[in-house]
Amino acid sequence: MFSDQRLPDGSFRDLPHHAHSAGRAPHVVLTTEVSDLADLKELAECGVLGTVRYPFHATDVELQIIRATHEERLEEVPAVTH
Question: Which InterPro entries match (predicted)?
């Protein structure tokens, strides 16, 4: 899920919880302005996978999609126990 860090009617922090009610929590990528301050620890706690800053290019978005896909595959791999 891509979301702007500044939403006019709410917060990106609410999106993962709302989407999670429909099933598994989504990976979230925030789009931000260069001047936006982001607390990386807080973002991670909110389920944010990464950020892309304006102006961004298609390859920035593609890299975040690849990263989310990789993370999703890691979550699906069952743990090996002995």
Answer: CheY-like_superfamily
For residue range 21-73, what is the model confidence (pLDDT) as tens digits?
556 667 788 888 776 677 777 777 777 888 888 888 999 999 988 988 888 88
Specify the pairing of strand 2-4 against strand 28-32.
parallel
Residues 39, 41, 47, 50, Cα dihedral to 10°? 60
Q: How many CB atoms lie within 10 A of CB 38?
A: 13
The domain of 63 spans: 2-76
CA–CA dist 44, 2 (Å, integer): 15
> Does residue 16 lie in a domain region?
yes
Residue 72 lies in a domain: yes
pTM score above 0.85: no
CA distance 68 to 71: 5
